[in-house]
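Before relying on records like the one below, remember that each one covers exactly one chain. Contacts with other chains, cofactors or solvent are not represented anywhere in the record.
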Amino acid sequence: MQTEEQKQEGISVEEEKKIKKLSTVVMIIILVIGLLVTTDILLVTKRGVGPFLAIRTKVYDDGGTKEYYGLGYKVIKYNQKVGRRDTVIGSWSIKYNTTPETYTISDLAYSIINDNNNHVGEFIRLTGTIENKNVKNNTITIKFTDEEDGKYNLTVQAKILSENIKDLNKNAPVSLIGTVTDYNNKTLIIENAFAE
């Protein structure tokens, strides 16, 4: 039996039950889709695999950079012959960008402290002088030493992709292009770098 209030509103008990069931089904579908999208995003950002739920829409003629669109997100997997080799994930509005931010080692050191920006995730070009090189691990180290109080000291370790590390000399000027992957205890790590 319907109450007087329900008769006035025009919704029967059976209709109310149907609406509740439909609302529950819709909410479960939304939660499942949200969980799948979140898992896909985490796999791309943390493990570097995928995306599995996004559609590849474009392949650039730069060495194989790929662009993917997912449900509310976009992935760009950079794979330039010489240049950017990282993965960027964001909203559909992120743009293909292979122009690095340019810094000297001293400018970068001041920026990290003064701007409170560790530059992790940024694609940069860094110029400095080679402090050390490790041919076995294909890494070079660049340092900036703050002569006054050490506040701005910075060590940059770059994992070089190119084979020309043997041609690089200690104390020689160098320009690195790569993506900052970590900053910890005044040490900045650049992965997938190219040295010029």
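The chain has two domains: 1-96, 101-195.
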